[in-house]
Automatic annotation (TrEMBL):
Domain of life: Eukaryota
Methyltransferase domain: residues covered: 94-198
Molecular function in Gene Ontology: transferase activity
Keywords: S-adenosyl-L-methionine, Transferase
InterPro entries in alphabetical order: Meroterpenoid_MTases, Methyltransf_25, SAM-dependent_MTases_sf
Keyword Transferase attached: yes
Pathway assignment: Secondary metabolite biosynthesis
Protein name: Methyltransferase domain-containing protein
């Protein structure tokens, strides 16, 4: 598997361990001050402190490079629609590979009832750190489930999600961790969770030249899509699960740094919406 709990190459992991921040972006500052009530003067050191602990637990580039401070769902063209939809009774949101759960907290800050929202990750320590980052362990009524996407409904928690059905799945910086075959396997499991008319939204590192790139775990690969290959993937998933999907997406340079150790000149941000039609 291309995702990593791999800590045996600390010198390699340091390639995506950015020096400490001296300021954070405005949206995450607003969230940490307004939702978590962290004093203005303590926000930066608080974020730096959580980043250290998170990277020690699991050395992902999204942690080392502070990408968790970018509230990408907020950037999605459907954000306002998603907030309105999730304010309705009996609606549900699942953040797959939620890590610290920053986008889930933004939804709560914007008025979505927290009991409509669920986070899911294979790494419990990262979800625990989410409570530390947002200081809401005793306030938030969202569920956080420890589960492995690839094991699907063999896990009780996942089976419950399948039975309930999900309206909005957020899936950011997740598929791009894996080779194409594994992405298809993961998408097959996620597809089974969506209600008809439900959507999967997110962003990941894409490429204007789709194909394999070295993954963060040594000697493994992950596949980077453009909109057309992502559409092909969901067509295969549809055929395999007797469902039908519409894929919409854009490639842009937002948050992309071609000089970063995990990107290159072909890298793009792939921002997507996948709608379950049947
Ligand atoms: C690169 S991080 C992205 C975190 C977050 N979605 C974001 O955009 O900031 C990928 C997350 O997926 C989780 N993950 C990796 N493999 C998984 C699996 N098989 N099942 C569930 N979660 C997984 C990791 O633990 C990690 O928190």
């Amino acid at each position: 598997m291309a995702a990593t709990h791999e800590t045996s190459f600390p010198e390699r992991n340091q390639g995506w361990f950015k020096e400490q921040l001296t300021e954070v972006n405005q949206p995450i500052r607003r969230l940490l001050e307004g939702y978590s009530n962290i004093p203005t003067s303590e926000v930066v050191s608080h974020v730096n402190n959580i980043r250290e602990q998170g990277f020690a637990a699991n050395p992902y580039p999204c942690i080392g490079l502070y990408r968790f401070t970018l509230l990408t769902l907020l950037d999605h063209p459907l954000y306002g629609t998603i907030v309105q939809r999730l304010k309705q009774a009996d609606t549900s949101y699942l953040d797959v590979g939620c890590c610290f759960g920053q986008d889930l907290r933004q939804l709560v800050f914007d008025g979505v009832p927290s009991q409509h929202l669920t986070g899911l990750d294979v790494a419990q320590p990262l979800m625990e750190l989410g409570y530390e980052l947002f200081l809401d362990r005793h306030l938030l009524h969202s569920e956080f489930l420890v589960a492995d996407v690839f094991l699907g409904s063999t896990q009780t928690a996942w089976k419950r999600l399948e039975e309930r059905g999900i309206d909005v799945v957020h899936c950011s910086a997740f598929f791009h961790l894996f080779p194409l075959e594994q992405q298809i396997a993961a998408a097959r499991q996620i597809a089974r969770l969506l209600k008809k008319g439900g959507i999967i939204v997110g962003r990941q590192i894409g490429s204007c030249k789709p194909g394999d790139v070295p993954a963060i775990q040594e000697k493994s690969y992950s596949y980077r899509h453009d909109v057309s290959t992502f559409d092909d993937m969901w067509r295969i998933v549809g055929e395999e699960t007797q469902t039908k999907w519409r894929v919409e997406g854009t490639l842009d340079m937002v948050g992309i740094n071609p000089d970063s150790p995990v990107e290159n000149e072909d890298s793009r941000r792939l921002l997507f919406t996948i709608t379950r039609l049947q």
